[in-house]
Amino acid sequence: MSKNIVFIVILIMCISCEQNRKAEVSLSSYTHDFGTISSDIICRDSITITNVGNAKLEIGEIETGCGCTEASVEKYELNPNEACLLRFSFNPKGKGAGANEELIIINANTDSLFYILQIKAIIQ
């Protein structure tokens, strides 16, 4: 009987520990400004995504606001304290002159569900 009680206590402790485990995202930047750019040059850069939580981060779909922006990650699963690059590009062709803003939306298995990277540029 006492072995059963010890087993139950250990099981409850394990379950409660699992419930406190969460993946959490930190982006090295939440905005990226390409500055003043020419309309005939595709701009590329990257930011770092880090799992600052204590459970495995699962990056889901990465959505862009339009066909002028592309984004991809090196890995779709990150262990706690692991990081990877989010590479993105912006093609200003056909956008017209002036200020432009685009969004990259990163879906993940976190409490926030998604994170937004804002891309800015002034097109000449």
> What structural class results from the helix and strand content?
mainly beta
Rg (CA only) = 21 Å
Proportion in β-strands: over 45%
Percent of residues in helical segments?
Answer: 10-25%
What is the mean pLDDT?
Answer: 90
The ordered string of helix (H) and strand (E) elements is: HEEEEEEEEE
Largest sheet: 5 strands, mixed
What order do the helices and strands come in, and which of them pair?
Layout: H1 2-19, E1 25-27, E2 31-37, E3 43-51, E4 57-64, E5 69-73, E6 77-78, E7 83-90, E8 98-108, E9 114-123
Parallel strand pairs: 2-9
Antiparallel strand pairs: 1-3, 3-7, 4-6, 4-8, 5-7, 8-9
Structure in a nutshell:
With 124 residues, this protein is mostly beta strands. The protein is built from 1 helix and 9 strands, in the order H-E-E-E-E-E-E-E-E-E. The protein is 15% helix and 51% strand.
